[in-house]
């Protein structure tokens, strides 16, 4: 069999295989693209490897994509270190990957940085820094960040307690289906 040259057709074939739930077909089309250095293909291939629980292969593909500045791959490397998937759990490593992704505007990474600072995992606990990261992610529509930011205002963590602002953030998260935000709204008497 000859090696496929990466072309837009390969992307279309991979997308079609993905839509049909054909992971092997998608992998077949993505592998040549990933091997040729395509960061998006490397990241998607890594996600397929996590589905099969081959975390070493996933980490290798994520690292190749992350080295090229792929923010989603950087975010997922952070998750690997938080969850300890195939590596020892390491919040400092996770924070480093989240910081790289967050610097490029990756909302999920910003939300996780807020969580790390809120809980003091891999960093000195700092509610003000946590809130700043959560605000960035929440402004981009991240429901987890919106819920957490609502809790900051509800309980007065690094801000003056403000139930109206808490409700606003909970409502935004609830509008995206966040059940914890709906519960918080009920507890605040509106929801």
From TrEMBL:
Signal peptide: none
SUPFAM superfamilies in the record: HCP-like (SSF81901)
Sequence intervals crossing the membrane: none
InterPro entries, A to Z: Sel1-like (IPR006597), Sel1_AlgK (IPR050767), TPR-like_helical_dom_sf (IPR011990)
Name of the featured protein: Sel1 repeat protein
Naturally occurring in which organism (per UniProt): Cardiobacterium valvarum F0432
